[in-house]
Amino acid sequence: MIELEHVGYSYGGGALLSDVSVRLAPGSFHFLTGPSGAGKTTLLKLCYGALVPTSGRVQAFDLDVSTLDRDQVAMMRRRIGVVHQDCRFLDHLPLADNIALPLTVSGRDMGAENSNLGELMNWVGLSERADALPPELSGGERQRAALARAVIMSPDLILADEPTGNVDWEMSQRLLRLLLELNKMGKTVLIASHDLALIRAAKSQVQARVLRISDKTLQLAGADL
Ligand SMILES: Nc1ncnc2c1ncn2[C@@H]1O[C@H](COP(=O)(O)OP(=O)(O)OP(=O)(O)O)[C@@H](O)[C@H]1O
């Protein structure tokens, strides 16, 4: 599904990532961990083609992302749902419209899609908040809305960047349950997280691989996690 082969990345100074190789198989569940600034967000961006590697190769759905034209990049991104660390909503649009934005942008018929939107808002427990504006939402509501927006195009792969940042334990468990449900539906899931308690909770429920960025490269974390 996604494969990084000997990937290196630099923002212009020294190398941030070096010789990173990993394969996310269809239907797998992964965590990505490592200290703040180690390059977790950067690695996710390399996976969805927002950044092109300085060295090595990223293959997404059997295509080399650095060789794709604009249309192919757009097609590839439709298959990947991203939950951004900062959620990024349009503050003047009601929540339902924010969640539906990927559909609107891609020109899908909203009449036909409305029941999907309703089901999705119900699934994340936000049906009652459809008309709320993003600044009125709690942290947990924002994170669930960001997850709903990431999956509205029915992606095959979900990349979630600290999806439980700034929420309490109960809410982080609720978000984890949603991500586990998506995985049970056959979606591949990669979660960047500092939250070791969350990773341990997930590992008791799903066969998850934990990858850690250390010394600029990616290592499989040991059984201590
Ligand atoms: N656009 C950019 N230009 C230059 N440097 C950047 C850019 N984006 C990130 N960096 C730097 O790259 C390093 C890795 O950033 P990144 O956000 O990938 O780390 P992270 O592991 O996700 O951190 P955190 O856990 O704090 O979110 C940091 O030192 C950051 O300042």
UniProtKB/TrEMBL annotation:
Residues 2-221 form the ABC transporter domain. GO terms for molecular function: ATP binding; ATP hydrolysis activity; transmembrane transporter activity. Keywords: ATP-binding, Cell cycle, Cell division, Nucleotide-binding. It holds the Pfam family ABC_tran. It comes from the Bacteria. One of its GO terms (biological process) is cell division. One of its GO terms (cellular component) is plasma membrane. InterPro entries: AAA+_ATPase, ABC_transporter-like_ATP-bd, ABC_transporter-like_CS, ABC_transpr_LolD-like, P-loop_NTPase. This is Cell division transport system ATP-binding protein.
